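Dear support,

I submitted the protein below through the web form. The confirmation email said the job was done, but the results page showed an empty box. After a refresh the structure appeared. I'm attaching both so you can tell me whether what I see now is the final result or a partial one.
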Amino acid sequence: MINLKDYFDPVSIEKHGLENLSGNAGFPHNTVIHTENITISDLSNFRVVLIGVPDGRNSPDPGSSAAPDVIRQQLYSLARIPGKTKMADLGNMKQGMSFADTIAGLTDVLTGLISENIFPVIIGGSSALVTAIDRSFTLLNSGYTLLSVDPRIDYSNNPDSFDSMNYLNKITGNSKSTFRHYINIGYQTYLNDQQVLNRFSRRHSEMVRIGDVRQAVYLMEPLFRDSDAAVFDISAVRQSDAPGTAMPSPNGFYGEEICLLARYAGISDNLKVFGLFDVNPGLDNRNQTTGLAAQILWFLLEGFSQKQYETPLLSNNNTGRFIRYHVRLTDLEEDLIFVKSNLTERWWIELKDENNQNTYISCSHDDYLKANRNEVPDKWVLASGRLKS
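What the results page shows now:
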């Protein structure tokens, strides 16, 4: 396991400990905090760890390096997370001499945590840090799905550049990467190159425009359930709700909507790492953006505390926890098989993978109703295309 002193600077309670809720009611009450006086020697007892990464290099927004400290201050002023989830705040990662050094250090930390089934929550810093997530899954030889809540697909047709605006170039261009599938929630068409959108569509990526998301936010929950890593760019929130970022947009999610998406990330029983990036306190208005960022993290952790691990049980027909529905469609040779949880009322589609083994794609009740109208759900079409390719 990682040695905290090698990678992290301790949290300064004097600087961050502004609690509006006193005693047991405050967020720090059920969080062990790495400070000058408290050293965490064993992380195996924790399920969630907070990691500040104050590095805004390789980004048009170097001011994001100040975000972890200010977000932490806002987070500590909120209420404690319900339940008994054991959490730790490891402090801020020591910045490397170069950005590549920071990526290497973060990769080491994430690889160690994920391998021990500890859920890391990264407080950035810029989106360029996502490449450390990719390297971690690759070192673990684990295929993964990356979900981003971002108004832009961070990919460029210029292969020679690398920064927070095109980190997907590094990931998709690396033949050794175990990256398998990309999901974007909330992209804004007028901010994206149509050729880039077409490129990712050909990869069977799932991309949902901001307007479609806002019409039915609840349909985003299955996307989080199938993701291994989720990263939020604060510029996905409209400028009136989150002005503190270098590239704001007048359109985007409301604060309540982005917090709901964060809760969906928290309750996902497949998600292994989460990151919140591109907050710039220097561009903020009375801590409006950093306050929202803290609430995003709070809803993520609140969702995590209520997580139900159902995916490993789906193939077991004897638990009595699930109901299977077979739906015949005229355009398909075989029935579509839907699986519903009696406990959480979540839905999945059962498919065969390249090895003829059952695999389960998260879906919604709406997909089941669509199949009953003799319509092939888009979920099935995209998943079948990925499995065949």
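Response: this is the final, complete result; the empty box was a page-load delay. The first strand starts at residue 8 and ends at 9.
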